[in-house]
Design a protein that fits this description.
mainly alpha; 58% helix; 285 residues
Length: 285
Amino acid sequence: MRFENRAPEETVNYADEHPLKEFALLVVGVLGAVALGAALLGFFAGELAARVPFATEREYAQSITLKFEQAKLGPAQRGTRDELRALAGKLAAAMPLPPDMTIRVHYADEPTVNAMATLGGNLVFYRGLLHKLDSEDAIAMVLAHEMAHVYLRHPARAMGRGVAVGLVLSAVSVGAGRSIGGEAAQRAAVLPLLKYSRDQERAADELALRALVKVYGHAGGAADVFKVLGSAVAGEAARLAILQTHPLTDERLALLQELSRGNGWPSDGPRTPLAAALRPAGAKE
């Protein structure tokens, strides 16, 4: 019996698929795994962060509070801030806030049309939005909405997600992970890190509406806020920070009507006039 080593076929290691196609599938698979890992880790990190005692969150956020408290305000701006704080105190009594959950309202004398809630119970109300609202009821709705974010621990959840994404990215790129994770952990007051999901915005709307009706006897102030935002022209709407993550105006008005009917709330009623400190300079009573 005679044996011999035959030369292998020249095409034995050739794949039928184009190598670029295989590479593309590999890249898509890796990116998909990273995205799924980031989403899962972000969800669990957010839930874990929301269970941290609020006192711990408030202590962690002391630098944020100090930053806002040290902002230079003139006498008129301080009067506006104090009036907003008094109104927040009235709303807090109508909301199920835990005894240790303190709300600290800050006023930013800037044209940005926005209001936000960040870590440690810090709320910021911008002049640009304040001067678009012509009743205390409407301002109260915005405050109650941001206070609801604090009560529902949405800022903590947002930061937890940011840190988790940084950890996942660090497995892919140390530089990217350190940058994003560090920014989420150390600069939590920055707006892009504290955007909330549409579901979170709806939950905050519902809780705010309940408080609004308790204080004013009707939900008219909420409708005013939604209509003011909805009346922004196309170009303006693109610049309004408050419209970038919130549900559409028609959707929010529909939710208002649904909740009003379901709970027997009056959807409209007399508005409470603005205190002098909340009106634009030169505005008449």
